[in-house]
Design a protein that fits this description.
Layout: H1 2-16, H2 21-68, E1 82-84, E2 90-92, H3 97-108, H4 112-120, H5 125-129, H6 132-139, H7 141-144, H8 168-173, H9 183-190, H10 198-243, H11 249-306, H12 312-323, H13 328-337, E3 347-348, E4 356-357, H14 361-374
Antiparallel strand pairs: 1-2, 3-4
Helix pairs in contact: 1-2, 2-13, 10-11, 10-13, 10-14, 11-12, 11-14
């Protein structure tokens, strides 16, 4: 998210400053990389500090509890037994944990899986619940589960009540949803979160669009260069047939010169196909594989969520998705390569040749195609020297 925001901001700033689309995209890509690196560094530092604080707090709490309970040989589970208060001092048990555990196990049973599935949503659970206070009011948790004043608190959670003899906890469990959230709503809402692939699908669509532009330019360049090679080869054959047949020394000299010139042009065209165009096709093929893989994993995650499968496979797939290409940097690079300036900015060295550089990949492919078409003139076979007509006999 930081990298994407930095990319958009840098590109907008560059365009506002009068920079070209190509220059703005270059600046945006650099800003995106820098923002990503900074975010990773901040995350690493925050994790280190949090772990250190957690360890220190745990050690201090343990030491405090140990000092307060010095001399106590027994900490019980029944009402009246000694226990350790939250502040580390010694207190007396009022609500036994065994009662709570037994009540929950008896009432929840297989419904425990609901809680597990909710937990698998991980850090996104706050977005699903949105407002815990509203959820609690909706199900009236205090009165339906705890029973309200005079209900004996947690001791009464699993005690039958009312005409139907069903405990408040079981009444709540058998009502639609847990804390106002049903399995269906959890999976349905989780499937729409960016973590579950919506961001990736959007990025893939933009990435694919840029890759298609590059692929089209490479195809055009490849066709033009292949046509140049074919044309030069045909003209060599024509020159050989017409010039060598005359036996004229001038024609034979012209044939030798043309054969050398056209052969040099054919070699240059073959090099352009191998060195300049083939790597672009290779990159496009890799990008196409990346696009298919990204869409496949997103579809798998969506299927797992819609089917309520929030198990290990879902967790593994979510983690895999977060590190899969195309990243925001990959997208920026592809969009930069797809830029087609209104005026050709690539250059050929020497001028008019197929040896091009500069600007974007799409612009380079366009210049190669243009020059390949123009270079056909180099491969036109020379005509034979005209033979003078014999003078008439007087």
């Amino acid at each position: 998210a930081y990298a994407s925001a930095a990319y958009d901001t840098a590109k907008s700033t560059a365009l506002s400053a009068g920079k070209s689309e190509f220059q703005a995209t270059e600046a945006a890509a650099a800003a995106s990389r820098a923002a990503k690196a900074a975010a990773l560094a901040r995350a690493a530092n925050a994790t280190t500090e949090a772990n250190a604080a957690k360890a220190a707090a745990k050690s201090a709490a343990f030491a405090k509890a140990k000092a307060a309970n010095a001399g106590n040989s027994f900490l019980g589970v029944a009402p009246g037994d000694p226990c350790t208060n939250e502040d580390g001092t010694t207190g007396t048990i009022k609500t036994p944990g065994s009662v709570i555990l037994a009540g929950l196990n008896k009432a929840l049973g297989g419904q425990q899986d609901n809680v597990v599935r909710m937990g698998n949503v991980g850090p996104q659970i706050n977005q699903i619940l949105s407002n815990v206070a509203v959820v609690l009011r909706t199900v009236n948790f205090a009165t339906q589960i705890l029973g309200g004043p005079g209900s004996n608190g947690l001791f009464g959670v699993n005690q039958p009540s009312g005409a139907n003899g069903i405990s408040p906890l079981r009444q709540y469990v058998e009502s639609p949803g847990n804390l106002g959230v049903t399995n269906a709503s959890v999976t349905q809402n989780a499937a729409t979160l960016s973590l579950s692939g919506s961001d990736m699908l959007s990025r893939v669509a933009q990435y694919e669009s840029a890759v298609n532009v590059i692929a089209a330019a490479a195809n055009t360049a490849s066709t033009s260069v292949a046509s140049l090679i074919s044309y030069c080869t045909d003209q060599q054959q024509i020159a050989s047939n017409t010039l060598s047949a005359t036996g004229n020394s001038i024609d034979l000299a012209n044939l030798s010169t043309f054969a050398s010139t056209s052969a040099t042009q054919i070699t240059a065209a073959q090099n352009a196909l191998t060195i300049d165009i083939a790597p672009v096709f290779a990159s496009v093929n890799i990008a196409s594989t990346t696009i298919v893989a990204a869409r496949t994993i997103v579809q798998k995650i969506q299927t797992e969520m819609n089917s309520g499968d929030g198990g290990t496979a879902y967790t593994v797939d979510i983690q895999k998705l977060q590190t899969m290409p195309p990243s925001t940097v990959d997208l920026a690079d592809a969009q930069q390569g797809a830029i087609k300036p209104s005026v050709t900015m690539s250059t050929a060295n020497p001028s008019g040749s197929l040896n091009v550089s500069g600007s974007s990949i799409t612009d380079q492919m366009g210049l190669i195609s243009t020059n390949a078409t123009a270079l056909r003139s180099v491969c036109i076979a020379p005509a034979p020297t005209p033979v003078a007509a014999p003078e008439p006999t007087p």
